[in-house]
Write the structure tokens for this entry.
Amino acid sequence: MTAVPDDDHGGDVEIVRLGRHRDDGDDDDGDLDRDDELLAAFHAGPYLDAFAHQREPLAVWQRRLRDPDAPYQLTVQIAGRALRDPSRRVLHGGVAYEWYPRSGCGLATYLVVTSPWRGRGLGRRLLTGAVDDLRARGAGRADGGDGAPVFGEIADPSAPGPGEDAAAAAARLARFRRWGARVVDAPYAQPSLGPGLARDRHLRLLALAGTAPAPATIAGPRLAAFVRELFVANEGAPPDDELEALLAAIPATVVTR
Ligand SMILES: CC(C)(COP(=O)(O)OP(=O)(O)OC[C@H]1O[C@@H](n2cnc3c(N)ncnc32)[C@H](O)[C@@H]1OP(=O)(O)O)[C@@H](O)C(=O)NCCC(=O)NCCS
């Protein structure tokens, strides 16, 4: 991972997409065993380097990628050179994202580009591709799939959590805004992501832009359905009073700013 960039555009980067999606007819399943080693290398390297504090276990990704009946569909895209050749491989980064089929909404969870490869457009390209992929899964849905909202989570610069740097959070938000993201003007909390882990009440939802712009409004019931689905899928328990109160506070039409 110490390779020095030998070009200034990143245009010929190879991108491998890992995921198994019953309803989009792709057959990535056959690649999963072969690409397990690649996934492990991405997880141990770029992912943990950037997200050491989150540490979603590799086993969770492996299970989600294989299970067609999982409550949400995980996709991981990995970018680099010689990706399937461990002896020559150079990892440039990747993006992970989830499709929530009941509400018809997407969530981009992790985006990382390793430092030698930053500032050449790869991060934005990976995120745009993820949003477009998720939007395409919503196309044709009766509930307005063309506009399937794709969300991201971001630390709230105006209410930073413990240990969170407000200036860094503001800079991160500013970058996502330059990439077309809009802040969702509704209350939000992140579900507990594992046994013993607390909910995170210092995050905001972003509506992300793909090739098409981020939506200026989102139907409140759609957002509520997504948040409910996200909590049930991640916590594996029915909504409690805190979640019901949060859902009740979502307005009929949610504005993004
Ligand atoms: C955030 C992150 C993914 C960005 O990756 P990246 O590949 O550097 O992103 P890009 O190159 O697309 O964009 C970065 C900047 O480089 C600029 N850029 C894009 N192409 C460029 C080029 N050819 N030459 C010079 N600059 C370029 C972009 O305009 C962008 O500027 P902006 O911040 O003003 O929008 C990367 O910094 C990272 O992994 N950070 C740590 C993890 C993290 O914070 N992830 C996001 C939160 S989940």
DSSP finds six helices and nine strands in the chain. Confidence is low (pLDDT under 50) at residues 1-10.
